[in-house]
Structures are given as structure tokens and as C-alpha cells.
Amino acid sequence: MKARADRGAGAEGSDRSAGHETREPFRSYYGRPIIKEPTWKVPDVPAYLYLGGMAGASSVMGALAQLRGYSRLRRVGLLCAAGGSGASVLALIHDLGRPRRFLNMLRVFKPTSPLSVGSWILAPFSALSGAVAVSELTGFARPLARVVAGFAAVLAPAMTTYTAVLLADTAVPGWHETRRELPFVFAFSSVAAAGALGTGLAPRSEAAPARRMAVIGSLGELLASRVLEQRAGRIAEAYRTGRAGTTLRTARVLAAGCALGALFARRSGSVAVLVAASGTAASAATRYGVFEAGRETARDPYYTVVPQRQDGRSER
Amino acid sequence: MSPDGAAEHPLFGLARAAQPGGDVRTSASGPVDSPAGGNRLSGPLADPSAEAGYSERHPERMGFFTDTSVCIGCKACEVACKEWNLLEEDGLDLTGMSYDNTTELGATTWRHVAFVEQRIDPSTRARVDIGMPGMGAPSTTPEEGADSDATEVRWLMSSDVCKHCTHAACLDVCPTGALIRSEYGTVVVQDDVCNGCGYCVPACPYGVIDIHPDNGGAFKCTLCQDRLGSGLAPACATACPTESIQYGPLDQLRQRAEQRLEQLHEQGMTEARLYGQDPTDGVGGDGAFFLLLDEPEVYGLPPDPVVTTRDLPAMAAHAAIAAATAALTVAACFLGGRR
């Protein structure tokens, strides 16, 4: 529980550490963090973020494919929705300090807690999606399953963005100060992830909507991420440097590759598989990069002290 | 809890507050403005316990006023807290941070005494860099050596603790209802409910609450909830030999703090300031507030903390629009042909 004062700055040291030449000097307590770094584990929580988003967009894809008569794409969408949301639930439970008490998440409904609201979205969504998937695989009660899939698809869009509010409603500067853009990054990233899986897993003759999702979702993710960094001010440094910067740059290359590949995936099965891989990796890397950027802004007191000092009581 | 108020038993109060009705603090529907007329998610709030659903007979809001100008750094508060609350030893490292080998508040440290060494000019009380090993560029340490009047060493000591915020982010975001508002207006964790999700940890703008590495639950100062009911003061305040830690009804503490501040200013200690006493600040004022002799960040405190739930309606709106965008984007992708 204890960490050494490894930053070495004296209690009175104005921190202007190497590599941060453009930073305003600020005072701190031996360079130690002011807020606590999230105790959420890797890969549990980044996986939870990715899987839930992918499942949400897949559910919408599956339900619309069902409406429009794409039977194979429907199958991919509904199975990905069930698999993704089920795995998301498992990742969340595995991250708990006391996993056996996971049902306490459903003990109350608290509108002030994004995790409570999120649990009340995730639990029915994963249950409905799981039931639909069983019907999809066994053929049991198929007419009923179509209705249930529609219900799941109504909850599904919220699955793509509630996790952004979950991160943003914390004192972590890297997440709270990007609270306006984060839901859009996650929403488009989810559409891209579902589209990429649809492109790779459904027959090419049926995957046209999925390919469009991969293209538009990836481009939207790139655009939203760019807006996020431009509006992030001082926080942008955490998104551009270190492990988060490397991860997010990789995610951008992968997303661009996914979008480009999806344009040509109609003609080649191997390209379609590459689209699925790159889109999945891009979406997962985006979540992990955002997660890591937030952790960095929690570790470094600069991100807490200087914005609070300079922005006063204004809207932060 | 006063005996004549026994109809509202503390445990019943706790149990009821943990129900959905007791926890819901949204301003989304109905006339939910606080008695002070503020938003329930942020801003001044006269009586957090009443807002959480306790009856009018609940006790006064209790708190701490930590006057660091008389703290001698004895750490009796840390020891008394550990002893009373049965908190285990959590490391015996030497940190090189003056006398502070505790380093921070956490799951097993609910009081933490900070030590800061400064060299000052005794006549002007201006602070001069003491030349501690640092990463600062030379330009940030101008006066060292040049200012021969900087002869006095000043030791800043401050006993940090959970702030028991008027608008507590940890309580707001807790998904299980484990974190509740007590009848004393404090914020406490119900260990038998907490499932260790960890959301409270990054939500706290002060970095107070933490997950216990061994048992997985969230822990922090309870203001000695188990002593208050018997009319006892919290262990730390009882142990404090200089009355640096003062415990009492928050209204009285605020008045006392203003008097003390005035007194110090008259004595020429113009650097004295109150921290966390202002009900209009970002967390609606702290139940545990401080008199400091330097900027908050020098003690490891955030200069202007905010309960981020203040922005929850706006964040929910952004998320809803983004979710609708995602749905419409997918729908648009199904409009085209099959190629």
C-alpha cells in the first residue's frame, strides 16, 4: 500500500521534470499523487469496456439484420452480442475485490452511480442476449426469440456508452475532463468493432452492412479521438505520451487499416478476416489507451493541481 | 445519538438509508431541492442527513476541525486510530519524506500526518527553498543562499483524514449502497455490503478511500461511528495532545475556525487559511476541514476539489446522444444495398 516518494521532488520542489519542459511549475507533497490511482485491473476492466461496447453494437446489427432478412449476419450479430456481454459480465465480476458479492450490484438502483445504472443495463441485456443466442443455436422458440432480440437491441445502444460515463464520473482528470468526447469515442469504437466482426464472420454476400459499419465506425472513432485530444488541453499530454500514447497511436493505425480493408473486403475472404482482426484490436486498444491515460493523470499530481489552480471555480 | 431520540435507532436509520429510496439523490424528477435551495448533486446543503432520509430528530452534523498551526507531529492520532479501529500495520518503509513514513491515507491508514520542512525569513515569513533534493530547474530555486535572512526552519505538520464531504463522490458512485450517509452527516462504508468494485477509489477527489489488498473491500475513516453513539469523541481527537484535532458539531467548529483564523492573522500569520470549510466549494464543504499555513497542494490536498457527480446530468446527456448516434449509424449502414 505504500509507495516510495520516487519522484524525488522535495516537499517544496516545484516540479518541472525532464520531458515536461512546457509545463507550468507547481507545488506538491513530495511529488506524490493527490488522488488514488484506480484499483481496477488490467486486462479485466479494459476488456469489460471493449466487450460491452462490441456486444451492444452487435445486438443492434443482429436485430436490424433480422429485420432486413440477412440471416447469417443476424446470427453473427446476436451471437456476438451474447458472447460479448456475457464475457463483459465475467470480466466485471473478476475485477471485483469480492467477486462472490457481485449480485450486490443489483441490490439497489442508484441513478447517481453510473456503475449501478450500467449494471441495470448490462444484466438484462446479457440475459436477453444469452436467451436469444440459445434460441439461435438450438432453434428453440424462434418467434419469441425474435421479439426478445428486439428488446435487447433497445437496451443495446446504452451498452456502447454507459462505460464512458462510468470513467468520466471520477476525479481522474484524464477521464473527467474528456467527459464530453469520451461517449462518442466509445460509441463509434463499438460500431467499428461489431462491424469488423460481422465483416469477418458473416459470408461476404451478406456482410455489406457490417463492412459499412466497419468503415464509418472506424472513421468516427478516429475523428472523435482527435476531437478529444484537441479539447483536452493539458490533459492531452497523457493521451499522447507514454504507454497510453503508444497504445492510442497503434489503435489509430489499426482503425485506419480496418476502414481501408473494409472497402475491399467484399472481394476477398482473407481481407475480411484481416478487417475483423484489426477492427477488434483497434477497439480494444482504444479502451486500453483511454484507461491507461486516465491512470497516468491519477499518478501525476500535475494533472490535479494545475488545472484546479488555473481554472478556478469555472466549469472543469 | 441522544437517548431520547431512540425511536430513530442508528441501525434502523442505516438500514433505511441503504434502501433505494434513501440512496436516490437525483434531481431528475420532482421537487428535490435541498432546504438551502441548492442542487442535490452539488452546492450548499444545510443538512446532508435529512437529505439522505433521516428524520428531523437525527443528531447534529459532527465533524473535525484540524488546526495544523498547533500540530506537533506526534502521530498520536495515527496510533489511536489504528488501535481503536484495529487497523493492521501496513509497512515499515523509510520514505525520506521528513518524518512522514506513512505516506498517504488508505484502507488501513485513516489518519495520516504530513510533514513539510521549509526555510523561511523570520521577519517576512517568506518561504525560501530549503534545498531538498528535487527535480526543479535552477531557475525555480532562486533565493537559496542569496537570501541570508532565511534562517528559520518551519515545520508544517498536518493530520489528514477523510473529509466527510457534504456531496461525497464515493457515496454517489457506490453501486451497491455500501457507502451511506450516517445520522451524524458522515460518510461510512458498510463492510458487509461492499463488493469491492473499487469505483469509490478514483471517485474521491481527495484520494482518501482505498481497497484493502487482502480482503478486497473499501475502507476509510468512519469518524469512529462506533464511539459517537456512546457519546465518545473519535479516537484521534481524544488522543490529540494539542487540540489540533477538534471534534464537535460542524456549525460550532466553523465558528471556532473563523475565530482562530482571525487570531492568527492578527498575530501576523497572514499565510493561515481555512480549507474545506466553505459550503459553496466544489464538494459543498467538508465535514472535516482544516486550518493550513500554506497552499493545500503542499500538504498533498487538491486546491479546488469537485464532486464530479455535479456533472452527471450533462454526462448522461452526452452519453445518450452518443448512444443514439451509434444506433442511427448502424441503421444507416443497413439502408444501402447488399454489396
TrEMBL record, chain A:
<feature type="transmembrane region" description="Helical">
    <location>
        <begin position="184"/>
        <end position="203"/>
    </location>
</feature>
<feature type="transmembrane region" description="Helical">
    <location>
        <begin position="144"/>
        <end position="164"/>
    </location>
</feature>
<keyword id="KW-0812">Transmembrane</keyword>
<keyword id="KW-1003">Cell membrane</keyword>
<dbReference type="InterPro" id="IPR005614">
    <property type="entry name" value="NrfD-like"/>
</dbReference>
<protein>
    <submittedName>
        <fullName>Polysulphide reductase, NrfD</fullName>
    </submittedName>
</protein>
<feature type="transmembrane region" description="Helical">
    <location>
        <begin position="117"/>
        <end position="137"/>
    </location>
</feature>
<keyword id="KW-1133">Transmembrane helix</keyword>
<feature type="region of interest" description="Disordered">
    <location>
        <begin position="1"/>
        <end position="22"/>
    </location>
</feature>
<comment type="similarity">
    <text>Belongs to the NrfD family.</text>
</comment>
<keyword id="KW-0472">Membrane</keyword>
<dbReference type="GO" id="GO:0005886">
    <property type="term" value="C:plasma membrane"/>
</dbReference>
<feature type="transmembrane region" description="Helical">
    <location>
        <begin position="76"/>
        <end position="97"/>
    </location>
</feature>
<dbReference type="Pfam" id="PF03916">
    <property type="entry name" value="NrfD"/>
</dbReference>
UniProtKB/TrEMBL annotation, chain B:
<dbReference type="GO" id="GO:0051539">
    <property type="term" value="F:4 iron, 4 sulfur cluster binding"/>
</dbReference>
<dbReference type="Pfam" id="PF12800">
    <property type="entry name" value="Fer4_4"/>
</dbReference>
<keyword id="KW-1133">Transmembrane helix</keyword>
<dbReference type="Pfam" id="PF13247">
    <property type="entry name" value="Fer4_11"/>
</dbReference>
<feature type="binding site">
    <location>
        <position position="194"/>
    </location>
    <ligand>
        <name>[4Fe-4S] cluster 4</name>
    </ligand>
</feature>
<keyword id="KW-0411">Iron-sulfur</keyword>
<feature type="binding site">
    <location>
        <position position="71"/>
    </location>
    <ligand>
        <name>[4Fe-4S] cluster 1</name>
    </ligand>
</feature>
<feature type="binding site">
    <location>
        <position position="170"/>
    </location>
    <ligand>
        <name>[4Fe-4S] cluster 3</name>
    </ligand>
</feature>
<feature type="binding site">
    <location>
        <position position="197"/>
    </location>
    <ligand>
        <name>[4Fe-4S] cluster 4</name>
    </ligand>
</feature>
<keyword id="KW-0677">Repeat</keyword>
<feature type="binding site">
    <location>
        <position position="240"/>
    </location>
    <ligand>
        <name>[4Fe-4S] cluster 1</name>
    </ligand>
</feature>
<feature type="region of interest" description="Disordered">
    <location>
        <begin position="127"/>
        <end position="146"/>
    </location>
</feature>
<dbReference type="GO" id="GO:0045333">
    <property type="term" value="P:cellular respiration"/>
</dbReference>
<dbReference type="GO" id="GO:0046872">
    <property type="term" value="F:metal ion binding"/>
</dbReference>
<feature type="domain" description="4Fe-4S ferredoxin-type">
    <location>
        <begin position="185"/>
        <end position="214"/>
    </location>
</feature>
<feature type="binding site">
    <location>
        <position position="165"/>
    </location>
    <ligand>
        <name>[4Fe-4S] cluster 3</name>
    </ligand>
</feature>
<dbReference type="GO" id="GO:0015944">
    <property type="term" value="P:formate oxidation"/>
</dbReference>
<feature type="binding site">
    <location>
        <position position="77"/>
    </location>
    <ligand>
        <name>[4Fe-4S] cluster 1</name>
    </ligand>
</feature>
<keyword id="KW-0004">4Fe-4S</keyword>
<feature type="binding site">
    <location>
        <position position="221"/>
    </location>
    <ligand>
        <name>[4Fe-4S] cluster 2</name>
    </ligand>
</feature>
<keyword id="KW-0472">Membrane</keyword>
<dbReference type="GO" id="GO:0030313">
    <property type="term" value="C:cell envelope"/>
</dbReference>
